[in-house]
Amino acid sequence: MVLSDPVSTLYEYFASGSEDVANPFLRRSSRTWAKNLLLKMSLCSAVFLLFAFVTHIYNHDLSLFFLTFVYFLSGTPALIKTIEDLSELTLNIDVLMTLAAFLSVAIGSGLEGGLLLVLFALSEAMADVVTHKTKSAINSLHKLSPTMALVYDENSKTTFPKSVREIALDTILLIQAGQVVPLDGLVIDGSSFVDLKLLTGESIPVSKEVGSEVQAGALNLDGTLKIRVTKTSSDSTLARIIQLITEAQSAKPKLEKFLSRFSGRYASTIILLSLSFGIFLPLLFPHIPYLGRDGSIYRALA
Question: What is the pTM of this model?
Answer without folding.
Answer: 0.59
